[in-house]
Design brief:
Blueprint lengths: L1 H26 L2 E9 L9 E6 L8 H14 L3 E5 L10 H11 L5 E4 L2 H4 L4 H10 L2 E3 L3 E7 L2 E7 L13 H10 L9 E4 L6 H6 L4 E4 L8 E2 L3 E2 L1 E2 L3 E2 L6 E5 L2 E5 L17 E9 L1
Parallel strand pairs: 1-16, 2-3, 3-4, 4-5, 7-8, 8-9, 9-15
Antiparallel strand pairs: 2-16, 6-7, 10-11, 12-13, 14-15
Length: about 280
């Protein structure tokens, strides 16, 4: 009898530890800082701070929501960029997503591009209307020139290729077609917001200086010394899941994102808020 009680207590303790670990891994925000250096960055943009939110998936976690608002308010970035999947197509809650926007919209200008989940909902027009009503700039195939003193940089955003209605046209072709329609000065430092990190070869061909992306959820489960386990459009052991990658003269920052979707939990892969600082060098 005593042995059974001890075994039961051990099981309860172990289950409690697992439950706490999963709560911690899925609700405790991690802030990652990256410095992008380039002699193409104007000196006036030294220490220019960009906060990236990606793959929010209209998370219901009050802990994450409050942490995001507190961190972003404290950072006081120059701009905030949202790189897709603000909502979740499987359990869409536009109000939850917009409530976050309402609490950070006065901190800095917000620029937004879509993800594949926006393409998967019938209520995207409503989401778009709410974003515009809250002063969010939607970069669906547009370039915005950002000025600081007497210098400028380009900020370009692409709609996710899932919005393409042609099943015979691949994502690379869709992105290339979108880019052909955008006019911008290629002599200036140019940032691209695009949800899909697996298309880095295409971004590098177009010679973007910096790409800011998400989509991979950090590989969902991160294995020490190996990295992410699985990611959309990259499969098992994906290559582009977290941090900075370089291809030719293009640098790409990939966020691990905030929320979850089909797989409801993260392991060794806490939700991530990314801060990017520009530096002329």
């Amino acid at each position: 009898m005593k042995k059974k009680i001890i075994i039961s207590l051990v099981i309860i303790v172990l289950l409690s530890l697992v439950a706490y670990y999963l709560y911690y891994e899925n609700n405790m925000l991690q802030v990652s800082n990256y410095v992008i250096t380039s002699d193409r960055i104007p000196e006036e943009f030294n220490n220019y701070k960009i906060v990236q939110i990606s793959d929010f998936h209209n998370t219901k976690s009050k802990k994450l929501h409050n942490s995001l608002v507190k961190e972003i308010s404290g950072i006081k970035p120059n701009i905030i960029v949202i790189t897709g999947d603000l909502i979740d197509a499987n359990r869409t809650d536009i109000d939850t997503a917009i409530n976050l926007i309402k609490e950070i919209k006065d901190v800095a200008p917000i620029y937004y591009v879509t993800g594949n989940h926006e393409a998967g909902i019938t209520s995207y027009d409503k989401l778009k209307e709410e974003l515009v009503n809250n002063n969010v700039t939607i970069l669906d195939g547009k370039n915005v020139v950002i000025e600081n003193k007497d210098s400028i940089i380009n900020l370009i955003g692409l709609d996710d290729p899932a919005f393409n209605g042609d099943p015979y046209r691949d994502d690379k072709t869709t992105i290339k077609d979108e880019l052909k329609a955008i006019t911008y000065d290629k002599n200036e430092f140019t940032i691209l917001l695009s949800h899909r990190p697996e298309l880095i070869d295409t971004y590098a061909e177009e010679k973007f200086d910096l790409v800011i992306s998400g989509h991979a959820h950090g590989g969902q489960i991160r294995i020490p010394l190996i990295g992410g386990l699985v990611a959309p459009n990259q499969g098992f052991l994906p290559k582009y899941t977290s941090g900075i990658y370089e291809k030719n003269d293009t640098k790409m920052v990939v966020s691990r994102g905030i929320g979850n979707s089909i797989i409801p939990f993260r392991i060794n892969n806490r939700p991530e808020l990314v801060i990017i600082s520009l530096e002329n060098k």
